[in-house]
Amino acid sequence: MANQSGNAYALTALFPIRHGVPSEVPEGLAGQTHTACVRYLLQDVLRVSEDSPMARVPNTYLSRFCILLDVPYQGKPAVLEHLKSNYLVFEVNFHGQLEPYLEGMWKAIEPEVRSLLTYCFGFDKVHDTASFIDYVKKCQIETTFYFNGSTDEPVAVQLKNLYLKQELSQFVYENQGKSAAELKTAFEAFVARTQPENIEAPTWRPGAYSLAKAVVGQKTMGAGAQ
Amino acid sequence: MITELDLEDIQGNIVKAYGRYGFPLARFVFYHVDNAEKGRLFVQRITPLVTTSVHWSKKLNREIPAVAVNLAFTYEGLKSLDVPADTLHAFPDEFTMGMKARRAIVGDVGPNHYKHWDPIWNHPDDPTLQHIHIMIGINGKDPNDLEASYQQVCGILNATGGVTQLKGHRGPNGAEDLPYQPANALAGGTEHFGYADGISSPYFEGCGEDPRFIIGGGKPTGLDPATAAGWEPLAAGEFVFGHADESEAYPEAPGPPLFSRNGTYMVYRKLHENVGSFNALIEEEGRKFGSKEAFAAKMSGRWRNGAPLAGYPTEESANRFAAELSALRDKSHKGTATAEEKQRYGELKLKLTAYDYTSDTEGAKCPFGAHTRRTNPRGALQFGVEKPFATPGALSNRRRILRRGLPYGKVEDPSRDDGDHGIVMMILNADLSRQFEFVQEQWINYGNDFKLANDKDPLLGNHGKDENGRGSGRMMIEGDAASNKPPYFCGGIPNLVETRGGDYFFIPSMTCLRMIAMGLVDPT
Q: If you count residue pairs, one on A and one on B, with CB atoms under 8 Å apart, how many are there?
């Protein structure tokens, strides 16, 4: 199945955005459409990287939201066509199966999901985890492209690996040339500090792409390796 | 179809690295145009002095001139001379914006930021504006000829008016207000860190230079890099507008076609060299690594005497090579070399460039992160394969740049960074974004293409500092499985080179210079 490759699942869902003007709009958007409200949320309210709500959804490799306004017309002899509505496009690559992932998503960020999807057709039928899963499945289309940047491991394991890789390279730079005894002592301190067996912490913060914001569970990179 | 170039129409600095023709001195002079009409008159009067790319040959009665003069314009410069809006609008964003505005891409942040540049590069009212309009470069062999040529240019300026020669270049004490940027080759052809410089340069179709330079200077064919079969010239359009490039299309350039044909872009960068930091680094790391010279070589990819690590992995072999080459060069220049020695000299010179990394796929000789392997990978970007695919330069043929430059200043105290010494670097290419900026952003200030994460070029990288003020630069020097030598990890590399000025320039053809001067550019 094209949606799945190894343990990676690629979900593409197109949520149809309602026509017209919503009865309740965020401040400053009076008279603006449902689409404008979705765009406002994506651009001004929901944060990105480590502050993104999606960073709190377990097992997320990569996710993107965007708005599809229409299909472009390429000129004659192509046929001029239009979509019946605007769509909120949701792309996500994650580890595992679809239903448990969506369950985790609903559990982790239900308020944010509601704030966005409330502007979409059919979301008024969603009232719990099961109906959310049904709704996403109805809007799902087959995915054939994957984000090629992950191993097949669960995300928590990958984040720990990433953290350990950075720490180990720092360790190498700081300790090369030492005697076997010194190296052993330093490595024991390294293991005690980085806790390779502990997946939870210290580890790489989900969504973080810069070292400065990356490590959770400890103060700074290499702090113990003086 | 072999491309033939109209060398009489192409400015000389595009084809010729003047250093190779024995021009050790230069002055780079910059101007602001106050009055378009007078500015065009100035260009008109300077144009006849401009040196072209025509082949210099005693036989053809075309002797090497005493000085070489070249002319280039910034975007604002072309605008100031009333080049029509339709033509100006067809320039790509990077040229229109100028180098300062591209600082995030180029790496001119932190100590490289324009607030640290020589005052001439910053407009007195607003440092973000492009203040410099015209650049004239004068290269010479003899100081008197250089001065005479400079005075001739000054005379033209005085006569035409309407153009201001800008001061504001720093000199040895850091506070001078020099009216031009002087530059001069150092004894032995090195730059201030002591590396032999200007060894390898791209060779392109129709350039008219000695075809022996194709070996090591062209693009790799996948055959033996030590022979002519291993290389062929790069497409002319990589470096000159109006000719097909490596994608078999004309490079994008503004119209009318005659305006851009035979022109190119030049990046001018004044790069300060932190000699004290460099010496301290090679001293300290060299001690740990085992040899100061070997460490310096691993950073560069060449020994400081010029011998490439790929061909001369040991200090002893490199020294032997350099001594023999230097002795033969002396004899050859004095005319006392025997036929046998001449042949040997030719063979040895080839060793400087006629190589690639197919026998060094693990980086045991030349590290993947070394400066020259990064900036000119010689078809070595295909990892994990014995024989790289059918087009071995596929990932690098469109990232080649011509380097023209000279050292400036003098190192008074090799233990200090301050003073005014470095390299005036000029980089020529037909696409600033695809060539210069890509190399600068991806190959110098990043390491992903070499599987080196975010390690930067040890010599040119903008490494930044950690919280203790120590340089954050890192370099891994690969070990050698054959001799059981472990890799060496060098951390704490500070910025060794810092930007002190520069911008993007357009070098027009002779035809275009005359069109600009006459106000005849008509894009309709």
A: 9
